[in-house]
Amino acid sequence: MDIHFNKVIPIPLAGIQHSDKSIWGNSFSLKKGEKVMLNASSGKGKTTFTHTLAGIRKDFNGSIRFDQVEINSIPPEDWAIIRRLQMSFVFQDLQLFPQLTVEENLQLKNQLTDTFTSSELFQMLEALEIEDKWDVPCGILSMGQQQRVAIVRALSQPFDWLLMDEPFSHLDEANTQRSLALINRRANQINAGFILTTLGENHSFDFDRELNL
Amino acid sequence: MIKKILFSYQNKTQLIIAMIGSFLGFTFLVTSIHYLIRVNEFGEGEEILGNNTMIIQKKVSNFNSLKLAKTDFSEREIESIRKESFTETLEPILSNSFGVSLQTDSELVPYFRSDVFVQSIDNSFTRIDSDQWKWSPGDDFVPIVLPRDFLVMLNTFASAKGIPQVSDDLAKTIGFKFTLYNDEKKEWEKVKIVGFTNEVSAILVPSSFMEYGNKNFPTSVPAKTTQLMLTVKEGQFGEFENYLQKRSLESKENSMIVGKLKSVAGTLFSILIGISIITVFLAGLVLVQYAQLLISRNEYEIRTLLRQGYSPTKITKTILLYFLKVFAVISAASIIAFSLAKLYIDSLLIKGGIQVESGYTLLSILAVILAFGIYTIVNYFNAKRGVLKTQ
Questions:
Q1: 10 Å Cβ neighbour count for A115?
Q2: Contacts of B305 in chain A (CB under 8 A)
Q3: Can you tell me whether residue A128 is helix, strand or coil?
Q4: Strand ordering across the sheet containing B227-232
Q5: Is B249 left (phi over 0), alpha (psi -120 to 50) or beta?
Q6: Rounded distance between C-alpha atoms, residue A65 and residue A71, angstroms
Q7: What contacts 24+ positions apart, CB below 8 Å, involve B120-124?
Q8: Burial of A163 by CB count in 10 Å (0-12 exposed, 13-18 middle, 19+ buried)?
Q9: Each residue of A57-87: pLDDT tens digit?
C-alpha cells in the first residue's frame, strides 16, 4: 500500500507559514517498504501527522490516499481491517491497558491475526530485555519498559506501514538501538516500511527518506 | 479479554439497582397479565351462555299483577337498550305461544309429565355446538337444554318414589318427549337433552322448533317478548347495573356478581399492568443509562481497542452480549418468581373455591419476551452509537 499526499494542511495549522521543505501543503508519495524519518521540533504537528494517517483526525484540507482510496471516505469497519492488516502504530501516549499484564496486552493485539505464538512474543520481549515483565501489569512498568511493550505489540500483526510517534523518547541509546534493530528486522521480513517521528535524532539509522514539518 | 477490559473494573451498584427494578417490573407484568387472562376466562365453558351474557327482564311488582304495568318489552324499548353504550349485542328471547308439556319416555324412569315453558335464543349467544343445535320437522328428536333446577326436581321426585336418582350424563340418555298442542290438535316429538344450564329458567329449544310450534299450534294468547338476551361490554357492568336499577329491570344475580367481580378484578389487573409497564420502562431507562455510563467510562478502552484494529461491530456485540445476559437473568428470575407467586396465588384461589386453569398463559410469557426484545434492541442501538462516537 502506497500513501499519497496532495497539498495536505491540517486545519489547526492552516494559518501558519510552512517552509518549502515541509510536507504540509506539498504533494508527495510514500512507497511501501520505505523507511522514513519525520523530523520536527515540538509543536510542529508530528502527532497530528500520525493521527491523520491513522484515521483518528479528519480535520485537514487537501487529500491523502492509500493507493487509490481517499482516507476520509473509509468507513469505520474498513479502518478496523486496515489497522489490523496494513498499518500498525506506536502512539506517543502508548495506549496500553494498564490493568492488563504484558502478555495480555500483547495477546490482545496478536489474537486478532494470530501472527505469533506465545513463545515468539516472549522472544521479542527477550530481545528488548523485558522478558521478566511477562506477567506484570503494564500500569506498574516504567515508561521505558512500557514503550518497549508498545513496540512489540505494534509488531505483532501484519503491516505495510508502521507509524511510530517518538517511540524511543524514554529509552537509553542501547535500548533504542535494540528496539530499532527489532523493528527493522520485522519490517524487512514482511517487506514493510515504517515512519518514525523524532525530534531530530536519527539514531544512527540509515533511513531511505527524511521528511520535515 | 475485551470483556475483562470493559466490564471487570466497573462499579456494579447501579446495574444491580436497575436489575432489581426490571425484575420487579417484569414479575408484576407477567403476573398481572396472567391473572387478567385467567379472570376473563373464569366461568367460561361451565355455562351455555357466552361471556358477560345475561338475561334481563322487567321486575314484577304489584302493578304488574294488577295489570297496571306491562312486563313485556316493546320494539321501542328493545331499540333503546340496544343503543346503550354497555350493550354489545341484544336479542329478544322467543317464547312459546303454543301448549307444550314434557314427559318421560323410558321404562328406566317412572312416568312423569309436566306442562313446561320453552324459550329459544339466538345461537350466537350460546356455546352449544351449532351442528347439534338444529331441528327440522321429521328429525328423530328435538335437542333441548334443561334448566338444572328441573333435573333437581326430577331427582326429588325419583327419590320420593324410591328409585335411583340420575346424574347429568345419565339424564342425557333417558328418553323424553314433548307434547305440542292447542285446542284442536296434538303432536308428539322425541326429545334429547344436550346440556344443562343454571342461567335460564325455561327449557331451551332450537329456534326452528319454536317457529314450528308457534306456526302449527297457534293459541289465542299472542307471543310476547318478556326477556332479552344481552351481552355486556367488558368492564361496563357498573353502568349496566345502574341502568337496570333506573329502569326497574332485573337480571339473574349470580351472573351479575360474576360479571361484576370480573369487571372489578379486570380493572385492578389492568391498573397493575399499567404500573408494571411504567416500572419496566423506568428500569429500562436506568439500564440504558448504565450502558451509556459504561461506554463513557470505557471511552479510553474502546478507543484503544478500535485503534488496535478491533471492529466497532465486535465491540458493540460484546457490549450487547453482556447486557443480553443481564436481561436473560432478569427475565428468567422474573418467570421463576412468577411461577412461585402463581403456586401461592392459585392455592389461595383453590382454598377460596375458585378454580382457575393451572397452566401458564402464553400472552404473559410473550410479554416478558417482548420486554426482553425491546430492551435488547434499544441497547443494541445505544451501544452501536456509543462505540461509533468513540473513534
A1: 16
A2: 108
A3: coil
A4: B87-92, B227-232, B53-58, B249-251
A5: beta
A6: 6
A7: B120/B93, B120/B94, B120/B204, B120/B205, B120/B206, B120/B207, B120/B209, B120/B210, B121/B91, B121/B93, B121/B94, B121/B200, B121/B204, B121/B207, B121/B229, B122/B91, B122/B207, B122/B229, B123/B207, B124/B50, B124/B89
A8: buried
A9: 888 889 999 998 999 899 999 999 999 999 9
B349 residue type, one letter: L
Cα B134 from Cα B123, distance rounded (Å): 10
Question: The dihedral of CA B269, B272, B278, B283: what is its sign?
Answer: negative
Give the mean pLDDT of B326-338. Answer: 91
Q: Chain B interface residues facing chain A, Cβ-Cβ under 8 Å?
A: 1-2, 4-5, 8-9, 301, 304-313, 388, 391
Distances from the Cα of A25 to the Cα of A52, A116, A156, A208, angstroms: 14, 40, 34, 22
Q: Which of A50, A94, A99 is best to mutate for the B interface (most B CBs within 10 A)?
A: A99
Q: Lowest-confidence range among A1-10, A137-146, B47-56?
A: B47-56
Domain residue ranges of chain A, discontinuous segments joined by +: 31-60+75-212
Q: Which three cell numbers stand for residue B120?
A: 329459544
Mean pLDDT for chain B overall: 82
State the best of B301, B303, B307 to mutate against chain A, taking most chain A CBs within 10 Å.
Answer: B307
List Cα–Cα distances, B193 to A68, B124, B132, B163, in angstroms.
90, 20, 11, 20
Q: Which three cell numbers stand for residue B5?
A: 477490559
Q: Sort out which chain B residues have CB atoms less than 8 A from A110's CB and list them.
A: none
Query: Tell me, which fold does domain A31-60+75-212 have in CATH?
Result: Rossmann fold (3.40.50)
Q: Is the Cβ pair A100, B311 closer than 8 Å?
A: no
Residue count of chain B, please give it. 391
The domains of chain B are located at 2-44+260-389, 94-224
Is a pLDDT exceeding 60 seen at residue B156? yes
Q: With residue B194 as reference, give the H or E element that holds it.
A: strand B186-197
Q: Which residue has the cell 304488574?
A: B64
Give the closest of A95, A100, A112 to B309, CB-based: A112
In angstroms, what separates the C-alpha of A20 from chain B's closest C-alpha? Answer: 32
The whole-number pLDDT of residue B266 equals 78
The shortest C-alpha distance from B307 to chain A (Å) reads 7
Residue B355's alpha-carbon distances to A142, B45, B346, B358, in angstroms, are 74, 12, 8, 9
For B361, half-sphere exposure in the C-beta direction (CA atoms, 13 angstrom radius) is 21
Within 8 A of B2 by CB-CB distance, chain A residues are 108
- The mean pLDDT value for B321-328 works out to 90
Strand order from edge to edge, sheet including A69-70: A27-30, A3-10, A60-66, A69-70
Cβ atoms A125, A133 nearer than 8 A: yes
